[in-house]
Structures are given as C-alpha cells and as structure tokens.
Design the sequence.
C-alpha cells in the first residue's frame, strides 16, 4: 500500500491534517485508527463547548467530529479503521508503517511523509501510587465518560473526583445530572489544573466543593470501594498529620493528568522533549525525523480541540509541501527556550523564515501568576514582544505570536513570564 501521506490517528488532529493535506495538493492520503470509527475521544464528549474558534459556533464533540469526518470523505481521504499501528520505520525518503487489523492481518503501508496524531492517554492509579485496597469503583474520568455516554452504564452513586483536570470536572457535572452525588473534587496543587470556565460551570453551578491542597491518601474496600481518606498537604505536597478524614463513597474518578501517546514515536527513534513528553517539533510541526510530522495532543496536551485542529492543519499543509518539494536544507535551527515561569514551549525550534506571516508559540506556566507579562527575548536580552496577562495558570495554555520578519536567523529565543 503506497501513499503520499500516512496519518496515524483519526481524532481531531489527524482528520484536520488529512483534509488540509488534500487541500494543499497531496495525492493519496490514508488515515489509520485503532477504533472502528473516526473522531477519537470526541465521540464520547457529548457536552457542548467545541468549535467556538474553528466554526464560530458551539458544538458537541460528536457534532464537531462529524463535520471533519464528512469533509474528510469529500476530500477523498482513505480511512483504515480498526487497525493497530505497531511500528514506524524510516527507510531513506520512504516511511514504512507496520499495522495489523482483522481484515488484512499484518500489513506494510509505505508513504513519502507520515503525520503522528495519536493523541494522549490518562494517568492511572498505578502512576500516582495511592496505597490501600484494590476494589472495583476506582477508574479514570475518561473511562467513566465512555461507560456513561457511549455504553449507557451508571458508574456509581457517591463519587469523589481526584484531580481537577477538565475531564474530571466535566464528569463531576455529568454524574450529578445522572443522579449521583459528587462529594468533592480533590486537587493536590493549590490551583486547579482545568479551565476556569469548567470550574464555574461544572463545580460551582452544582455546589460541588473543590478542595485545593488536598490528596487522597488511602483507598478502602474489599470487592467495591467503600471510602477514601482525604488529607491536607503542605507546600511539599506531603500530607499534614492530623488532617486526615474518611469519606464514604463507592466511586473514585481519577483526573490526574494526560500523557502524550508516543510509544510509536520513541520506537522510531524520534527525539522526545522531557517537558512535553511529546516529540520535538519545528515551526512546520516536523519532528527530528525528516518527513515525519506531529500535531495535537501527541505533541503536547492542549486545552481546546480547536487548537488541536489548527495544529493538525499546519502539519497537513507542511507534509504536503514536503511531498511536493522534497527535503530542503534548513540551515541553522533557531532554538526556542522555556525561560522563567514557563514549563514548556512548542515549537521548540524554528528554521529561519522570511517574508510575511507570523509564527505562534504555545506554552504553559509552571505556577500561578497574577498581573504578569509573557516576554519573548533574543539571545542578547532584547525584548522582541511583550504581552500582558491579568492571570496566568498552569491549567490554561497560553499562546503568543511574533512576526516572521522580526526574527533573527542568528539568535535563539527565550519565552519567560515576568510579574509586574
């Protein structure tokens, strides 16, 4: 099976990349996904709030996915569902995707360019190592979302949510609407890791308490969860003795972070950024492997699906340009570094760009700032751009752009957060 571009993952990033690649002149484009239908996680996100930036209207997750799926079919993209990708290899200018499905068995898909769009996965109980029993009733927020929204099951009656990620906040509201009693949302950090709008709409509007600087320190129950122990934590995130209290519940939802799905990426020898846990990319979303691009949550965890789609479009456009023009000598790479207060920046490096247009950077803060500036400087310390923000939190991704004509081909850049 030979194609111009092969895309791994048919979620919002992969679908957007496929459509834009076809619009940009790519010939044969194939998109591969392990699920039986396209759309990825959007299919279980039945709440509204999607598409405000992309379509200028409010859609549910399935509605958003359907628009892209329809456009993808109209563009002539080949869809290969129910297929598990096992590995990616680069053989010169040819990329080989090895995959397996029930219809064809093991197959090799050859492409001139590959786009990685595998999304991310949830951290589980094993990742955070909560001591105690191992009863049923402890599950990730995403798993609960699928059980409730896709399969029509109730997951519990008395619920505690650990972590304040967006999926956990949304499921706190969803389970309340299904008749469950959500007792609390417990967050170990002194700030929420979710969007402020979700705190208001999912917790405050339903009277669900958010316990900041708290942790679940023990799980009890034999066959089914019977309760959890909650305690306050200090600045060192260690439980404070004497603050423990037992909360009776039958369900614990874990919303304790997302991890970019990059086993295929690492297996191919592509460099991974320890800050994002996704591949290093340049301004065109190309990874350290020539002709392999990446976009969306496989690169870094985004807040909004609209940003995921925009990154997908950029990757699709860049992959089509690569197929048409072939590899080009890019010369010196301009490094983009995370400075004071910044945990990561994407893209991590750029190739010098001339002419009109802008380059946009996504970043996250490593703590809460009030009344601060996003500052972009060159190696000499000269300020290239400064943008004021009334509040910056780790739970909300920040974006800053710069005109291409203002960048120097000889100087790395640093993005920092500076308080007023």
Sequence:
């Amino acid at each position: 099976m030979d194609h111009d571009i092969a895309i791994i993952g048919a979620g919002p990033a992969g679908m957007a990349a496929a459509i834009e690649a076809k619009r940009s002149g790519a010939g044969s484009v194939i998109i591969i996904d392990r699920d039986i239908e396209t759309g990825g996680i959007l299919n279980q996100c039945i709440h509204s709030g999607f598409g405000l930036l992309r379509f200028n209207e409010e859609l549910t997750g399935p509605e958003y996915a359907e628009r892209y799926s329809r456009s993808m079919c109209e563009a002539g993209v080949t869809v290969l569902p129910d297929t598990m990708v096992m590995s990616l290899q680069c053989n010169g200018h040819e990329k080989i995707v090895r995959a397996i499905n029930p219809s064809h068995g093991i197959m090799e898909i050859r492409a001139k360019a590959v786009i990685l769009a595998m999304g991310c996965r949830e951290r589980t109980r094993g990742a955070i190592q909560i001591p105690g029993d191992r009863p049923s009733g402890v599950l990730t927020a995403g798993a609960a979302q699928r059980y409730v929204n896709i399969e029509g099951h109730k997951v519990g009656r008395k619920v505690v949510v650990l972590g304040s990620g967006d999926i956990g906040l949304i499921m706190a509201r969803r389970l309340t609407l299904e008749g469950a009693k959500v007792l609390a949302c417990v967050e170990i950090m002194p700030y929420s890791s979710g969007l402020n709008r979700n705190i208001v709409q999912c917790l405050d509007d339903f009277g669900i308490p958010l316990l900041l600087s708290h942790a679940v320190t023990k799980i009890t129950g034999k066959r089914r969860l019977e309760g959890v122990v909650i305690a306050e934590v200090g600045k060192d995130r260690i439980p404070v003795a004497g603050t423990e209290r037992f909360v009776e519940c039958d369900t614990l939802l874990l919303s304790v972070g997302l991890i970019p799905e990059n086993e295929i990426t690492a297996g191919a020898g592509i460099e991974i950024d320890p800050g994002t846990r996704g591949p290093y990319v340049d301004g065109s979303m190309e990874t350290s492997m020539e002709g392999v691009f990446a976009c969306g949550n496989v690169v870094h965890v985004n807040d909004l699906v609209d940003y995921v789609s925009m990154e997908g479009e950029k990757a699709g456009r860049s992959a089509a340009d690569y197929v048409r023009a072939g590899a080009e000598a890019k010369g010196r790479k301009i490094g983009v570094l995370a400075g004071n207060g910044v945990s990561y920046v994407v893209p991590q490096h750029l190739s010098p760009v001339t002419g009109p247009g802008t380059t946009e950077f996504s970043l996250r803060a490593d703590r809460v700032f009030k009344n601060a500036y996003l500052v972009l400087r060159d190696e000499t310390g000269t300020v290239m751009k400064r943008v004021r923000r009334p509040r910056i939190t780790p739970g909300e991704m920040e974006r800053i752009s710069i005109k291409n004509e203002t960048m120097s081909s000889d100087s790395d850049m640093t993005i920092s957060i500076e308080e007023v």
The first helix runs from residue 12 to 23. The chain has a mean pLDDT of 94. Residues 17 and 401 are 21 Å apart (CA to CA). DSSP finds eight helices and 29 strands in the chain.
